[in-house]
Amino acid sequence: MYFGEAQTHLDNKGRMTLPRRFRDIMHVLGHEMWLMTRGFDNCVFLFHRDAWNSIRDQVSKYSAMNAKAVDFRRLFFGSVAEGRPDRQGRMALPTHLREYAGLTEDANEAVVVGVDDHLELWSLRAWRAFKDRNDAAYKEMAAQLFVGDLGLDTVGEEKGKECHDN
Description:
By secondary structure, this protein is an alpha+beta fold.
């Protein structure tokens, strides 16, 4: 799957150059076609076909009468574009997604982040700001994801039980 981060840039035609290690993984896994859409915090999500189908299946479970689900669908599916890296490893990013991510001619430095089953494209400025904003909460995030699932508090004791020295 996809891990790590690598800086890249967009050229004057709005194409990003995918970092070599991500292209190598794409090739090995057969991930040639990508679906791009607006992500969270002004990044662009990039999903290969299998991951995309899984997300689409999850989202389709919600009723068309659920207003929040409809709003999400509009924003998420309404901004989708397909992309495929060319022989030089460049992938065109449509104007509406470049604008959403803050990737302009003046700010074309970007970061591609591997997030396990998908990639994210960030402006370099937004990625740095995101990391700065979330760095202090990193331990708390881990505790909620891992420790909370085990029924332990943050120091490894069972919830509801106290440790006593004898």
